[in-house]
Amino acid sequence: MFTYRHPTKVVFGRGALEKLGEEAAALGKKALVVTGRNFAKKHGYLDRIGGLLRKAGVEPVFFPEVEPNPSLETVDRGAEVARREGVDLYVAFGGGSAMDAAKAIDVVATLGGRAADWVYPKVVEEKVKPIIALPTTHGTGSEVTKYSVLTDTGRGVKTVVVGDGILPDVALLDPEPLKHLPAEQAAATGLDALSHAVEAYFSRKATPLSDLFALEAARLVFANLPCAVRGSLECRTEMLYASMLAGYAINVAGTNIGHGLGYEITVRKGVPHGFANLLILPHAAGIYAFAAPDKMDELLDRLGIYGLPGGLKEALEVLKKTVGAPMTLRDVGFTEKDIDYLVEKAALYKRNLANAPIELSEDDIRGIYESALG
């Protein structure tokens, strides 16, 4: 038995951005536009978004201050602006960082307190003010998820605000902004979508419905990420769809080994999130195959690699090399001396690791990191 509910309205395809005004006008009168520090301004989207909102009678207030891996402090600053300006709507334009920040800003501004008061194990069940999400990368799926991943700089860890209350009301998925993605960012965000799909598929919370989303997302990533990295907008459009599907999958099933062991790689070395996850994921493939051999066979068949001698591990490594991702932990600056530290930090991500298909021992975690070291 499983339950599924997803209230986000999705508008997908070229021209979806032009729907912003009418969607916003139906939800509020004054919008906090949450973006990163560079992309939206550099490519003219701040003016464009402001124009669309004003034309529809919605007053924009801009908060273009979100950094990669947004901090709790950034969320608190955004919430202060939102309260001061009296906004009744949030427009998140950017990658996962901007969308995640907007969700958390909404929670703090609407429900009170500070960002630190709302992190897991707190679950946001209360409905906050409306959110419209416009992704500019093809990786996080945050436009349709109940997660806001943040950085607790004081503790030096990733943390999360989570709950159905922060699901965006509208997701406008327009591939046009993707034409500006640098190749490295296309690779990293695309691998993030793949990690969502694979981890959700092998999660102990997986359902037949989440498997549908995960399998198709994984297939689309393998088919389209290489040409997306080369700059094909058609392939990037397919990747945007894959990212959304993978977001649906993790809403149901969550993430596990790739994220639980990958977060510290990002926190300590600044490795892009998708690259960090894929430094781990190939070395979790054996655990997935052991725990769910029939599901592994189904995934390999869907990917068209059934019978590949190295199985999923080899397929992931080949894809990483094809798109220019780092191949080993050594490539991003780790050595044998870091393994104990990484194992210790991984234990902090119980929320993710609890979703693994088998219970992981400390030795299992150590073995994955040692294998990933190369």
Describe what you observe in this structure.
- The chain has 374 residues and is α/β, with parallel strands linked by helices.
- The chain folds into 2 domains: 9-177, 3-Layer(aba) Sandwich (Rossmann fold); 182-373, Up-down Bundle (Dehydroquinate synthase-like, alpha domain).
- The protein contains 16 helices and 8 strands.
- A 6-stranded parallel beta sheet has the order 1-8-5-4-2-3, with helices on both faces. A two-stranded antiparallel sheet has the order 6-7.
- Helix 6 (183-201) packs parallel to helix 8 and helix 9 (257-269) packs across helix 14.
- The longest helix has 22 residues, at 208-229.
Labels describing this entry:
single chain; six-stranded parallel sheet; 374 residues; Dehydroquinate synthase-like, alpha domain; Rossmann fold
Uncertain segments: none
Structural class: alpha/beta
- Provide the succession of SSEs: EHEHHEHEHEEEEHHHHHHHHHHH
**CATH topology-level fold name of the largest domain:** Dehydroquinate synthase-like, alpha domain
Overall geometry comes to globular
As a percent range, the share of strand residues is 5-15%
- How far apart are the first and last residues' alpha carbons, in Å? 42 Å
Q: State the assembly state of the protein chains.
A: single chain
Strand order of the largest sheet: 1-8-5-4-2-3
